[in-house]
Amino acid sequence: MEPSKYLGRARNLLAATLVEEFAAWLMARGWSRIAAPHGRDEVLRMRHEASGELLLVTRRADSTRHVTVSGVALQQALLFIDQRRANGGKE
Known about the structure:
Distance between the termini: 15 Å
Low-confidence stretches: 1-6
Strand content: 35-45%
Radius of gyration: 12 Å
Helix content: 25-40%
Oligomer: single chain
Largest sheet: 5 strands, antiparallel
Order of helices and strands: EHEEEEH
Strand order of the largest sheet: 1-5-4-3-2
């Protein structure tokens, strides 16, 4: 699936246990953590160093197993999952 064609929101795409691995993957691609997450639902807040795009990942109220990704976070999560699968990951 081409990420640029799949915009919106996905609630069961990224496992909560993979958020830190996802953050490390993003940092290797020019993203940096800009602040501690805001509020009780935000779990990851990053900004792209070149474009200035903001990426947010939020906690789901009805699930502890998955997080919600939307917009640029969704695009990046799809790339992360595709690369992880290609390298033998299970996500």
